[in-house]
Every structure is written in structure tokens, then in C-alpha cells.
């Protein structure tokens, strides 16, 4: 019968003498949700960057008013692509609806037939009247400055 020497106890690492400095947490993206059922649809971080938008195309309109272009969406359903004639030309688009309550939210631009509009392809044009979030201001809200 062989006996091995007793094992030395495991030691924990020593506490560092300097206090570790932590990096700040990244900013939490502000969610934009469906106005009807509050399902998260996208975030402010998914807005199409201004550098990707030509200077003559800074205000977007959907079927129900002001809109913004986004690079990604969540919790949505897309319809079959159809060709729509818009003020900027013909586009192949898919209607976007909320996956929870099926409310209309906007549309995805699949293809632009005008070469000057091709930069919009694969973007999601979401109607601000159909979304709820921190940067959306409604004319009927008490903090609105439309007092003219």
C-alpha cells in the first residue's frame, strides 16, 4: 500500500492591491414599440445613419405621415412584395405589421427602380404615428411645442 504525500490546499488568487477600473456600460438602446400593443419593434440605434442618406432626402413620409428609415426590425411580419408607385418612383415593397397584434407599422423597401433611389433598398420605413418611444413626439402630447 503506497501512501502519497498530503496534497497542499488550493489557494485562491490574492486580491489585487490596485482597485480595477471598470469601463462604463454601453448605452442601452432606446426601444421603439408598437403603439397598439407595446411590442418592441426596433431601437433608436437602428436608425439609418445620416451619412447614408443623401442631403436632398432628409424628410420621409409614409402613408399616414412622418416616417424614418431603419436598418433592422424585430417582432414583425412582412407581406408578399408588391410594386408601389411612390412620389420618388416605383418601388418593390413589403408591408410591415406587428407580429403580436397585426397593426400596420410601415413597409420594407425591397427594390427601387430609379437609380437615384437605390440607396433605400433593404431599409425599413416605419411610420412614426404607429410607434411609441422616447423620441417620438405627437402633436396632441402635452410636451409638444406646436403652439403657433
UniProtKB/TrEMBL annotation:
<dbReference type="InterPro" id="IPR039058">
    <property type="entry name" value="Yippee_fam"/>
</dbReference>
<dbReference type="InterPro" id="IPR034751">
    <property type="entry name" value="Yippee"/>
</dbReference>
<dbReference type="GO" id="GO:0046872">
    <property type="term" value="F:metal ion binding"/>
</dbReference>
<protein>
    <recommendedName>
        <fullName>Protein yippee-like</fullName>
    </recommendedName>
</protein>
<dbReference type="InterPro" id="IPR004910">
    <property type="entry name" value="Yippee/Mis18/Cereblon"/>
</dbReference>
<comment type="similarity">
    <text>Belongs to the yippee family.</text>
</comment>
<feature type="domain" description="Yippee">
    <location>
        <begin position="30"/>
        <end position="135"/>
    </location>
</feature>
<dbReference type="Pfam" id="PF03226">
    <property type="entry name" value="Yippee-Mis18"/>
</dbReference>
<keyword id="KW-0479">Metal-binding</keyword>
<feature type="region of interest" description="Disordered">
    <location>
        <begin position="1"/>
        <end position="26"/>
    </location>
</feature>
<keyword id="KW-0862">Zinc</keyword>
Amino acid at each position: 500500500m503506497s501512501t502519497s504525500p498530503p496534497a497542499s490546499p488550493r489557494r485562491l488568487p490574492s486580491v489585487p492591491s490596485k482597485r480595477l477600473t471598470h469601463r462604463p456600460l454601453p448605452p442601452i438602446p432606446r426601444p421603439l414599440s408598437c403603439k397598439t400593443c407595446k411590442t418592441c419593434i426596433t431601437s433608436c440605434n437602428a436608425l439609418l445613419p445620416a451619412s447614408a442618406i443623401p442631403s436632398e432626402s432628409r424628410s420621409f413620409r409614409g402613408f399616414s405621415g412622418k416616417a424614418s428609415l431603419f436598418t433592422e426590425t424585430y417582432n414583425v411580419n412582412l407581406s408578399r412584395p408588391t410594386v408601389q408607385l411612390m412620389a420618388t418612383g416605383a418601388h418593390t415593397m413589403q408591408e410591415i405589421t406587428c407580429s403580436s397584434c397585426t397593426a400596420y407599422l410601415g413597409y420594407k423597401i425591397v427594390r427601387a427602380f430609379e437609380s437615384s433611389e437605390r440607396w433605400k433598398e433593404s431599409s425599413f420605413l416605419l411610420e412614426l404615428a404607429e410607434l411609441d418611444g422616447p423620441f417620438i413626439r405627437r402633436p396632441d402630447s402635452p410636451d409638444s411645442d406646436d403652439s403657433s
